[in-house]
Amino acid sequence: MDLKVMNGLLTPKSVAIIGASSTPGKIGHTVVKNLIESEYEGSIYPVNLKADEILGIKCYASISDIPGEVDAAILTIPAKFVLDSIKECGEKGVKGLIVITSGFSEVGEKELEEELVEIAHSYGMRILGPNIVGVLSNSDKFNGSFAPFLPLKGNSSLVSQSGALLIGIDAATFMRGVGFDKLISIGNMSDVSFADTIEWLDQDDKTKCISLYIEGFKEGRRVIEVSQKATKPIIGLKSGISAHGAAAAASHTGSLAGAAKIYEAAFKQAGIIWADDLNNLFDRTLALSLQPPMKGDNLLIITNGGGVGVLATDAAEKFGIPLKFAPEDVQAELKKHMPVFGSAKNPVDLTGMAGTEWYGDSVKYAIQHPWVDGLVVLYCETAMTDPLEIAKGIKNAIVESGVTDKPVTISYVGGEKSEEAMRWLVESGIPAYGAPDLAINAIAALREFALNKENNKIKTVDTKGIDKQKALAVIEKARANGRDALTEIEAKQVFEAYQLPVTHSKVATSEDEAVKLAKEIGFPVVMKIVSPQILHKSDAGGVKVNIKDEEGVRSAYQLILQNAKNYKADADIHGILVQEMAPMGTEVILGSVNDATFGPTVMFGLGGIFVEVLKDVTFRVAPFSKKQALEMISEIKGAPILQGVRGELPRDVDALADAICKYAFMMLDLADEVSESDANPVLVYEKGEGLKVVDARVILKKK
Ligand code: ADP
Ligand code: MG
């Protein structure tokens, strides 16, 4: 990232408005007016062929006439004039182009947009947009947009792919009391993308939290990389998670991959905190921009009412920070600040009699206690207490405690007075919400932030013994045959090259050969059809398991051949696979798609016939660490099955995690060649006994 250029684009010291207009209501007029009204202190240069001045500011006929330097040019002229104009900008030495103008890729004018980027880059300029609202920055008093005013002041900055939503959010900041320093509209993302803005905002000292509204990343992998490196919390709201639908795919994975799950996985790996909806984006942004991360799991709740306490307890479990009872010494001390009928467990119930002092004393004590990692304070408005006084008591207690590295969030349930108290709290730097579950959800975001930072320290995969050349040779041979699907035995050779344990097998082209191979391998054996046109072998009656003797081999050989011919008369049959029969184990599936946004992405789930119905699967973008593979194994609903249920011993989860990592690495390493693959099933054995891939499928990229 060229910091000087990005600064010129996003915090310019001088701007030209190309297409500035004297006509109120035109975007070119609104932008000039906004710059004046936001009290922008840099130089403003309206560019207009005819006008001498606009809103009292001297106009220039062309950008080259401007006497001083120009950091950023804001373009509001029609699309057809943009290319000529930006050449002039380039000659002038402009650093960044804020292209408000629409009429590019969003209406199918892809080439025009590509030309725009090409010209800009040839002059070393960066482009924001096109098709955007502009850039707003409180700390620069810069409203370089056609949104009506700067947002409520705050610590966080928002990047939005939707312009209209950005304008709505701008106004909503005042209603919700959630402030922002910058609002950046990135529209078509022809050049500056989410990754660029994340990188830039992470070094912007006015931004404490990075908020994203995402319709789709253009460069998913880079977003993951820059987000992992970022030091600030990043929160994302992804829309369009339902529309993706199933991709037409030859493997199971394609139809199981949904945008929602892949984005969820990518967020996890990137360390981007998930926002469920727009409300949640506001709520969590508020907490992330005001409070420190929660560095452990010990959450303490202090309340004056049992009802909100129970609601908060439920929410704590739901959002991943289940409550534990406070240790004895904490309970004993807190008991001093409540009537005898109060409770010092967790939630700590000070009862409806709690006033400012009880709240203050218990908050101060609790936040200082080493056991406590985070605090949620709940208050129900009562006739005897004043909401604002309570708020001030809580704030004072936190200040007096001297503790600044533990988060606190608050919930008030009440009327106008409570609303007023909550506004006061937020202005004082403590996030406050109108319901207990919201306060819990907010502190859970701070917990997620801390966990993300820990997870990101872990590095990836052991590549010892991997033989890429061997895999490529198998692929080349299939390609030379004009195929883009590998047979099971070929796919397993590829898997083997990546150290994945597969069942031993050989291809027979006659009944006698099959008998010979079966004897070599040892009974019982499995026999399967080998044909590039029959990828789902059982569907064609092409699999026979548990064949115990020579006679069985002979009859299976004939039967499988016959079945295959009945299924697909013109199928090209390479022979019959004779394979070692793997002992019974727990069936799991590994799959991978080459996702359009994130590239090779791995799926894991329980196998067997239910996988497509239950969709109990989870994803990660390849590659990833063993820790993340273990996380995948534990996060599916069927996880207990692998941990051992009903007297069964636990499965070899460790070997499974290793295999998932190696499989992910394989998909990444072969990304240029392989479009999708799966291992279905993989049989997982008891702890220490490993696993076996009994079926493998690899589909090549079309070349
Ligand atoms: P397909 O998925 O193409 O129909 P598979 O090779 O997966 O064919 O075989 C179908 C089923 O037969 C598997 O799901 C598994 O239960 C069983 N099976 C296949 N190969 C073996 C083997 N080598 N050992 C034990 N069971 C096997
Ligand atoms: Mg199979």
TrEMBL record:
SMART domains: CoA_binding. InterPro entries: Acyl-CoA_Synth/Transferase (IPR051538), ATP-grasp (IPR011761), ATP_grasp_subdomain_1 (IPR013815), CoA-bd (IPR003781), Ligase_CoA_dom (IPR043938), NAD(P)-bd_dom_sf (IPR036291), Succ_CoA_lig_flav_dom (IPR032875), Succinyl-CoA_synth-like (IPR016102). It comes from the Bacteria. Keywords: ATP-binding, Ligase, Nucleotide-binding. Pfam families: ATP-grasp_5 (PF13549), CoA_binding_2 (PF13380), Ligase_CoA_2 (PF19045), Succ_CoA_lig (PF13607). One of its GO terms (molecular function) is acetate-CoA ligase (ADP-forming) activity. Residues 492-528 form the ATP-grasp domain. PANTHER family: 3-HYDROXYPROPIONATE--COA LIGASE [ADP-FORMING], ACETATE--COA LIGASE [ADP-FORMING]. This is Acetyl-CoA synthetase. It comes from Anaerolinea thermophila.
